[in-house]
């Protein structure tokens, strides 16, 4: 059941949003091994209502493993995983969705040639009438999609336009609004700004803030400390499967965050290597690697 009484299976009942700062999801000394590979260990993380928890880390740091545990794709092999203070062990992503935990992945799982409203309800279509005369309730789907997008502050000229014609940022925003509509109270965003330009990234960051304003607990996975710092309330930096930094916004600066991401020693090595290359202006190399190179190349 979803909250508009449409009987959509597998969608969490939202109820009243939890008060701000309520812990929704908690990992305590959690870890995951794939056979002999210890991808994650000793990780403490709290996702709170009305707050954005940023998870940063370089390639292979364990970010995907962490979100796969929370979203029910993988089971943790060490420590505890709690939802609303109760230990859980999800078998499938459906179990996570039933608890209101929704992940929005980079590839978004949309059908590019289908209209926006149709993608909004993909897999959870509204119907009217009884079998064998049951059919899609197109007017209600269009009206609901329009209303929900507007509630998130997303105004599209035409919901009939194929989702493939939207910009990457707009598509992310539609996916966020969709997850919120279907009862998400914990929203996991897997590098939503990774493939976007500056302006589009700004649009997505705005809707991350909008989700927080609606009381959701947001987990924002990113390589980019600048994007994290613009909206984050808490920062967890992973390195080689373990937490290198866990800090509240008031306890860390953007420079410190960037430094943790870059790794001071690695930056020094890189600067040394660059100094051997003709034509590189070393004075222009900023303090952090995250500044120096586009996402995904550091
Ligand atoms: N299915 C798997 N089997 C074995 N090892 C895995 C598996 N998935 C991940 N790993 C290993 O676990 C470690 C963490 O990987 P993970 O994908 O969680 O990192 P990440 O921070 O998401 O990296 P990226 O930003 O590149 O996606 C890596 O060493 C990776 O090789």
From TrEMBL:
Keyword check for Nucleotide-binding, yes or no: yes
Its transmembrane ranges are none
Q: Name one GO molecular function term.
A: ATP binding
Q: Does the keyword Nuclease apply?
A: no
Looking up Pfam families in the UniProt record yields:
ABC_tran
List, for all copies, the residue spans of the domain called ABC transporter: 25-265
Q: Which UniProt keywords apply?
A: ATP-binding, Nucleotide-binding
Q: What is this protein called?
A: Sugar ABC transporter ATP-binding protein
- Species classification: Bacteria, Bacillati, Actinomycetota, Actinomycetes, Kitasatosporales
